[in-house]
Specification:
With 112 residues, the protein is α+β, with helices and mostly antiparallel strands. It has 3 helices and 4 strands; from the N terminus they run βαβββαα. It has one domain. Strands 1-4-3-2 form a 4-stranded mixed beta sheet.
Amino acid sequence: MAKGIQKKRAVVSYANMSPEVAAAFKEKYPKGYADYMGNIVKVDKPDGTFFYAVSVELPDAIYLVKVAVTIDDYEDVEKSLFGGGNDDEGSDSDSFPEEGTSNLPDDDEDND
C-alpha cells in the first residue's frame, strides 16, 4: 500500500461479516477467538456502554469484529465449583462453632 494512504477502518458484528472478512477471521482464528483472549479488546462507546472485539486485517481495511464475551460472575463460578448449596451434606460445615462449645477436651480435664 502506498505511503500516506490509510486503510479503511470499520466495526462489524460477528453475525454480519462479509464473506471476505469471515474468511480472514477464520484464517486468523482457526479454532475460534476464545483461544486468543489476549487479542480481545474492550471498546468503550461515547454513551458509556462498551463491546468486545477482535481485529481482522485485509489488504485494504482493518475491521473490529464485535464478539460475545461472558465475564464470569463470582456467584456463578462459586455455584459451579461448589454446587448450588441445596445439598444436605456439609450444610453445617459452613459455620464455625460458637466459642466455648468445642468438642475437644479442656486442658483442665486432662489433669485429673
